[in-house]
Write a structure and sequence with these properties.
The structure is a single chain. The chain has five helices and two strands; from the N terminus they run αβααβαα. A two-stranded antiparallel sheet has the order 1-2. It starts with 18 loop residues before the first helix and ends in an 11-residue tail after the last helix. It is an alpha+beta fold. Bound molecules: zinc ion (ZN). The site of zinc ion has 7 residues, from strand 2.
Length: 111
């Protein structure tokens, strides 16, 4: 701690991604955006590393930093798809909270 110097407080699960890690994800993704539906964005500089289970939800679930940042929980998305996914995070988080409180598990809902 102590290196924040007045920045916004960082999520304890935050971990930066090295170029080598991004390159490995790119190879796994066969060189394009991984958003389901066949997005063809293939310029690595336009692809962003996404947490499949977002950090805010990983925190709720008690995931460790290692679990949260495992390559299995990462994917490459183009900026528009990343923004579209992030826009659903709040609703997903609310759903997780609801389930953790004993609510029913809902399947197949659209956002
Ligand atoms: Zn895309």
């Amino acid at each position: 701690m102590g290196k924040e110097r007045g920045e916004r407080k960082r999520c304890p699960l935050y971990q930066s991604v090295s170029r080598a890690q991004k390159r490995a994800l790119y190879e796994r993704a066969q060189g394009h955006c991984e958003w389901p539906g066949g997005c063809k964005e293939s310029d690595i500089s336009k692809l962003q590393v996404d947490h499949i289970t977002p950090r805010c939800i990983a925190r709720l679930l008690g995931w460790s930093k290692a679990q949260t940042n495992d390559p299995m929980n990462r994917q490459l998305l183009c900026k528009p798809d990343h923004q579209m996914k992030d826009a659903t995070t709040r609703a997903k988080k609310e759903q997780v909270i609801y389930q953790m409180r004993g609510g029913m598990i809902r399947f197949g809902e659209h956002q």
